[in-house]
Amino acid sequence: MSWTNVAQTLSKEQQETVILSVAAQLDSLPLVVKRDRARLETEARPILTTMLGRLGFVANATLQTALLQQVIARVGGLGFINDLLPPARNDLSEIALNPDGSLWVLRKGAEYFDRLEAQPSLEETWRAIEALLAPLGRSLSEATP
Predict the structure, then answer these.
(1) Cα(108)–Cα(105) distance, integer angstroms
(2) What pLDDT was estimated at residue 71?
(3) What is the 3-state secondary structure (H, E, C) of the chain?
(4) In sequence order, what are the residues at sequence separation of 6 or more whose Cβ sits closer than 8 angstroms to the Cβ of residue 5?
(5) Which of 13, 63, 77, 95 is within CB 3.0–4.6 Å of 59 for a Cys-Cys bond?
């Protein structure tokens, strides 16, 4: 039995500490890297491993992957949408967000939307929209809905 087989559950506060610490180190990356999730993952993975060791935390592969995805979502600006996009999900054809904050998805081949439990904040929603539109040279405002 090795230490890598020992599953340690980090508290939400400890997870947030790790995520914020790794995100702070990635903050100086160029925008083109932040918008490319594959490149961002390549940059973030060794920093996450180093940060876990520096803070004295042991995390199994599943927890490390979950933390890495949260870092990528935060740094890349996609937030709650990150978990709905490939490679995490390939079964969705549409994502819809209503003015009341309810989040809906249309699965490929489905006739009706399914409501998700997530209800992102207005700030998180704007950040995700800007992150999605910026690489396309587009923006969203009342003048350009």
Answers:
(1) 10
(2) 93
(3) CCHHHCCCCCCHHHHHHHHHHHHHHHCCCCHHHHHCHHHHHHHHHHHHHHHHHHCCCCCCHHHHHHHHHHHHHHHHCCHHHHHHCCCCCCCEEEEEECCCCCEEEEECCCCCCEEECCCCCHHHHHHHHHHHHHHHCCCCCCCCC
(4) 60
(5) 63
Roughly how many angstroms between the first and final C-alpha of the chain, as a whole number? 57
Q: How far apart are CA 76 and CA 55, in angstroms?
A: 24
pLDDT at 77 over 80: yes
∠ CA 28-123-93, nearest 5°, is 95
User: What digits encode the pLDDT tens for the residues 10-35?
Assistant: 888 999 999 999 999 998 998 888 88
Q: 87: cis peptide before it, omega within 30°? A: yes
Q: Does pLDDT of 2 surpass 80?
A: no
Q: Tokens 């409501």 map to which residue?
A: 115
State the Cα–Cα distance between residues 112 and 89, nearest whole angstrom.
Answer: 18
Q: Model-level pTM greater than 0.85? A: no
Tokens of 1: 């039995």
pLDDT at 44 exceeding the cut of 90: yes
